[in-house]
Amino acid sequence: MRFVALLAAFAFASSAQAREWELVHEENGIVVHRKDVAGRDLPVFRGRGAVNASIYQVIAVLIDAPRRPEWLHRCVEAKVIEKLGEFATVNYSRTDAPWPVEDRDAVMIGQLFTVEPGVKYRAEFHGIPDPRMPPRPDAVRMKRLHGHWLLTSLSPNKTHVEYLVDADPGGILPDWLVKQASKELPYKTLLNLRRQTRKTRGQYDAFLDRWDPMRRPKDAPPPTQPAMWKEPSK
Could you report the per-residue pLDDT of 166-178, keeping only the tens digit for each? Predict the structure, then answer.
């Protein structure tokens, strides 16, 4: 009886945890979920879907910060403030908001690290204060920004992508915008990522020749896998 009670409690806890994520949209092989958090205007949202490109081509697109306005939904400005390493940068990003809501912007550290070499990589980003890019009068600086891209190689030319954002945009957002953002931002971003990987084929050859084992010369040593970047101790 004790075992049955424990099993039932475990099943209930697992079911409750699964219900935390709410399905809000599914189209073109992209699935979008949201999770409401008490006291926050914007829910945590995530999108998942496959991209017909190698995992290295997807990485090449993700780390090319200045070109993010071409595909990251509603991103109208992006630039690198400081390069900390090949796979770690301090970036600035501005997101367009529909009238009459003010644009949002953020300074963040973006970094890529290896989960399983050649198979799974995780690109994380989190907002930071930075005196080199103080708040601007024409945009609201986001109070909190955390998120990741989780990339899993399905085949040499196919990658599963998970895009997750947990943010506090600051200010007050109307309900219609919250609902719209939690659906459109992950869905359209992943849809645009698919297009961007097609559009940029042949434009990241130097990066791919060094990283992709299908393209790298047989006598060339494999590059060092990206590790989690850590701020040096003072």
Answer: 998 877 776 766 7
